[in-house]
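Two proteins, back to back. First:
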Amino acid sequence: VSVGIPIKENLGKYRIATAISYNRNILNQRNFQNFSTGKNNEAKVINVENIDKRSLVKNSGSKINSWKYLILAGIILVLAILAGIGFIGFKKFKASGKNSRGKGPRSLLFLLFFMSSAVIFSMFLNVGNAQANGTLKICVYGKLFDTNKGVYNKLLPSVNIYWNGSSANSYLGHQNGCYTISGPAGTYKGTITASKPSYSYDGVNYHFYNSSHDNFTLHDGWTTRVNIYLTAKNGSVKFYTYNCTDNSAIGNATVHYESYTVNTNNNGYYTLNGVYPGVFRYLYASKNGYSNSDAKLVKISSERLSNLSLCLKPSVGSVTGRVTVCGSPSQGIAKADMLYKGNLLVNDLTDNNGYYTFKKVAAGTYNNISFGGVSGFHNSASQTVVVKPNTTTIANFCLNPNFNSLGYSWFPADGTNYYGFLGTINYKFFINNSTLFTYKNATVKFLYEGTVVSTITKDVNMLKTTEFDYDYLSFIKFPGSHKIGAQVYWNGSQILSEERTINVKTLGGGFLSGQVTDCKDKTKISSARVTQGTNFVNTNSSGIYSMRLPVGTYNGVYASKTGYEDSVSQSVSIKANTTTNANFCMNKQTGSLIVRVLDRSNHPVNNASIFWDDPSAGANNIFLGKTNANGFISGVNLPVGTYHGIYASIGTNKSTKETVTINANSTTRLNLIVSPPSSTPTLNVSFNANPSLGKAPLNVKLTTSVGGTAVGVITYSNQHCGSGGTISNINGGSFNCLYNSPGNYTAGIRVQREGITKTATNNITVSGNSYLDIGLRYYDGSKIVGIAAEKALSSPLRIYKNGKIYGIALVNINDPKASKIRVKTLGGIKALRKL
């Protein structure tokens, strides 16, 4: 049945009747559309149930408006008229005398009448009091946290719900987190408040703030959902970082959590406040020089302080490298300082060859590392050195020379032209190196009128003045002013260029010539310099020299050479076109040698002889002197140089030969060890096997101990395991022997020290699994006598040693004859018999 009643949106508050269900569906669809776009979906978080509808105060009344009564009255009137017309028509139809063929229409008319009456009656009964109902569903969520999930919302069970803040209107939410209640459709003014003071989940205790939702509307036949979300109160966590090795605190470590980091203080602590509670995973600590700690989990609860300790293991590596001269990588720089950000970190770090090494350096990245502090050099460029665990990092540095620290001076002031056609210019160039660095292969170029006439290359030694000299001879026809110059090069770069003007004078003269020899042994001295004022010349390989000088008398002419004392100066007279002869001799510079001789007990040895034995230098057991009661010999003056083969001798005993270097005007000391014949050195050798007895296969560790008064290097040789043994892991006096078969073996070794040789051995016994067959026979006695018995009453045979069972064997008593018992023993048959 379809009733054409216009339905408006607010009519959804009333139940008209089941007969208008189709139109009601249209109404509900409209209301749902309005609800789904409203603000009810934007509520806060939580889950609740059981709001009693008696406490819900509806905003609008429940009575039907008067215009609705007029519509209903009009409907009733129309139906009544239709019913009356139908009844009149029925009477006329009946009076016309129609036959029974009209019964069908009459029945239909009556059915229509009664149904219409029922509908009208039903509508009348319900129209005044059938008010429409809706459903309210309140769901309360808690905001939780887990590293794996992030922030997520979870329905909270058993939440307290308040309506309009009244404790009288309070309800406890169901376990599923939602509460559902029905009430008259309409809009309600008021506040729904959800409260959950404490909630534990996954080991975290959440204390939630209250949350509320204002106003809601119930729609006829539909469920209105209100979501309320609760936020928890913050907690705190205290981090502690420490050393896994010794449990000491590690300060200034970085703690990583989520995408954030914090740094602990000097004592290893950091307290992080204002942290939303939850489960925080994968927290770890890091610091340069340490391996990262293991990742850990911490659970932080509301209004509580959680603690998390993280331990880091030290992570170390090593750093090595060399400090050299830039452009000359083979030239190391000694005593260079390591610098950090330009400030001194380690003083005089490099050795004489420029090498340095750091062991057990904490792994990490080190910025702004440089070397410097060396006189005559600029500091090196800074580097970043990365040290990795269990790895050696190589970091090399180079220093550029500071040439401003070198001093330069040179001659001449003039030149000489002899007889108007042969001229000479004496170049003398000096480089004073006051630094601790030797400039290898420094080059000086001498120029005449802009043209290079000579190139000389030498090492400019540290803390010394190095001389570069050259005599330039030229046919100069026109005496007068000439330009000469000097240029200095090092490592391919020019570091000095100077030019001077000199006056070449024309002079007549004669020659000075002669020979320079050793004053003691009269050997000829080559490369010696004979000097007269600013004039000089070097001797040739035969020690002969010759120089031209103007006519005149010259005082203070002398010869010199490194390693020699200067000769006695002479006065010479030069005559025109005449050669004047002047010979010079020089004594080698000497130093002092002091030798002390001790025995092996560190006591002085009296009357020991000291010799120099170096056939390559022509010295064959040259006697230098004898020691006094305190073991000393002093006052031995030797020419400057290096002496090999210095040794002490007393009786037939001799010390080892040593090498000494004698420096000019210096004293060199040397200690030698030699024992008098009455205290012949001894050599004691102990050779141990562990174990020396066992069952095959047997692995034996052999070790050697050396004692006695003999000193010097110990030499091990002829290590062996004996025939049938396999040797391995030889390390001087220790090695291993493997014996796979039973037998007796002899291992040995040879030891040598200070000319004494000792051989040591050790016997090793290797056994297999030995068996002893014991025959048994029955006899009348009640006990076993010894091992062999004539007759046994019991089947097991127990063998005892020192009150404890050594072995058990079973007798086959079903065999009427004697049964044999096989007993296993590691010690062999003899060992079993001794039981």
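And the second protein:
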Amino acid sequence: MVAMTKYPFNWLLGLALVCAACGDDDGPGDDPGMDASTDPDMVVEDDAGDPDMGGETLPTDLPGLDGDVEVVIDDRGMPHIYATTTHDLMVVEGYMMARDRMVQMEFIRRSVVGRLAEVLGDQSPGLVNDDADSRFLGFERQGEAIYAALPSDSPSKLAADAFVEGINHYIDEVVGSDTYQAPPALEIFNLVRLSENFGHWTGADVFALARYQSWNLSYDASADINRSQALAGVRAAFPDDATDEEIQARVGLWGDFFSEVQARRVYTDDGFPEGETFSAIIQPPRLPALDTAALRGARSFYDRLDRNPLFFHDEHVGSNSWVVSGDHTASGNPILSNDPHLSLTSPGVWWYVHLNTAQMEGEDDIDVQGVAFAGLPGVVLGYNRDLAWSATTTGYDVTDVYQETVTFRYVGAGGVEWEPVSVAFEGTDVPVVAVDEVIGVNFGADVTVRFWNVPHHGMIIPDSLVPPDIASPTAGDEAVGGALSVRYTGDEVSNELGFFNALMTATNVDDAVAAHREFFQVGAQNISFASRTGDIAWSTHAWVPQRSAPACSFALEADGTVSGVSPLFVLPGNGGFEWGEDIDDAMLPQAKNPASGYIATANQDNVGVTDDGNVCDDAAYIGGGFAVGYRMHRIVENLETLTAAGEITTDMMIELQAETKSSLGETVRDPIVASLNHALGDTADDDALAAAVTDAGADGLADLEAVRDRLMAWTLETPHGVGATDEGEIADSVATTIFNATITRLTGLAFDDEIGAIGRGMASFYNARMLEWSLADSATQATTLYSYRTSYLGDTEWNDTVVWDDFTTSGVLETRDERVTRAVLAAIAWLEEELGEDWDEWRWGRLHAVRFDQIAPSLTGQNRVSIPPEPSEEFPLGFPRHGDFGAVDVGNYSMTNGERFTHGSGASQRLVVEMTADGPRPFNALPGGQSENIDSPHHADEAELWRRNEQPPVYFERADVDAHAETTLSFSPR
């Protein structure tokens, strides 16, 4: 699952500069958005002041309610909403969510549907361009289409309408009041709400946001473009007909650098279930030549899109989930665990909520609790009295990019000179369709932007249009150019909210799986279930189109070169590479009560389609580009041990969510130590290493020996070590620091020459995997790496991958041990400069840290909504964190930047729930808090639990809720 990331909006800098004159000279205690006399710990009864709204009085009656509604807010800020109808639950949920997250919700909504310029365009004209990019993605069009297609009595439509009723009541009666002020440090919202274009939410907005979340989980057009550019780069830099030995030895680098093979070959299931589907195995043609100008333009568009945190696709985002049968637990009850790895922001992605009609003997007997996305109704991840569920992304390929042959017409000089008219398809010209979007500008003239749609494929990527290059055309002339279009299952109408509505009252895993198949079509997820009757199950249903045989004719040759076509690359758009029917439900991976006694998913290949490096030669094509298996391997390794021993408890599952043993350390530490032993011994057999040792001098050799000894003593545990006094913990923390500073330099020394020639880099996971493969022994490399050679450049005993040699240098043959030695020396030099000369102070948490960055821009330059606030003397980089690359408790950094080890994504919740015969026994913690208001006691209280990996019980039973009640609100029909 994916959400917002750490990079600022494009427009924030300009907007903050423009608005800085508004100033905030008041101290934190005198902020105009907070009544200084308000006691933040007070209990609100009925119509008393609300501490999270700075003492604003909330109304006790709401128009349109069916009956009385009671809301108990517990000591963690969760609202427990008790009503008699589903309608009233949704109304009050919308109202209470807006109370906690109005600014976040409004900025997300306007960013997603492309309506920021409507309220802030006068402050930042560049918002028009950002809105145009959002309009291209079409979430507002899709939301309106879904809303219109649903019948009036659709539960999803009724829920959306009721939810926005509540939001709009809050807008009218609180935000719209004369005394309202935006929460402290979020004063920019005052500019938004005072705009003449600020107004109500609509039911279609809810479906637009839902489709945006599905898009975040499944759209991967930019990955297809990246792969195509990388393959073109490999072929250009290392052609298969090269005669130069250094070039020829690297011909197969595609099969090494960009392989689909998992770093850890651990799958959720052994293969596809029973079922019939199309299998595309034909004699492969060569991938056709690509329009490099169109690729560059498309890449430019997606790079720009990535600068918006709502649309950035973080390579490190992922999720963990596992469910264990009661056959292996101490209580005999199944236990479900889920920590979705999303971007860590303030406020956070999730908002706690408990919805209940059962207490008042109302309709549908609803009693459901968990987390909701800001701006969406219901519960997304959680549990009811009978069933718990979790989610991780599947990585199914539901997006294809097509290279179109476009006929353009010259319309005259000035402005747009060439307009697309048609595309070639199956021997005929198919007219393209203009899609005009009107962007409103606050206190300014509307701006109309035009996009183009290919009817049988989809929208043309704006920057990819390549018009004809013709001298002196005249009006009406037509000629051929190019462009890239995108086909995506999410452009069709579907109703994923129906699935979550059904889960509120589902009583068993079979009903839940049936609802998944009926409603969940876009944004494919591994949904796992545990019921109080003891069943566990897993479902991955979504629309996954079958591809034609030519579209999936990819072959990885014996030398690592590529032939054929794959949906993972840009496809020819002229016909023959199209979608067929969706893959049969029976064929999609799924399970119920497996013999293993557990089900685990972590975004990896679920069924082994990557095992031979070719995802196109299996019973079905479902995709590629999966997570490479580090987390999954560690999860399964632990679950195998735990299930064999039995007596599993919730505490054990909480401990597994916090697991941080170094995966790379397991495989890479010993080869690094071996290289250092060579450097510290006789180097006469390695001229490059001997030169490195000479360059190091006596002090350098002493450092190498110290590093070797520390790495040999390392237990592979990765504590952050900040504030630690235990000698063993300190030693492990320092070893973790040295190891990670070394490997990030080693990847550069090993791969930068090839990457520079190719022109496209590897993702960090691929860097890590290639480093492992490159440091493996020769017998392993011989069966793994296409760049392995027994003899190379006159060295008849090379027996290693050639990537250790820098092919751009002359007169020297760089070797594995020389590269490792120089990487260690460079790491030590940087650490001494960065952290000082006392090695015992090189605590990992001084480098490896996380800050939950605020979403809405600050007008003062101080990000007080961030957690911890920025700047912070105590936490200059954020909270110190344990773990290194590939840990279960994820905290991944870039493998290509050896000077920055902070991370921006991680566990967005840490849910563990035992399903007892009486109902759920849940534990959880969120990275942040319920409220965006920094003066609320629930702004950062959850963050304190999260950063210590503490997960207290969540209150589900009414007696527990009452025992921990902090605030009680009552609403009545008006």
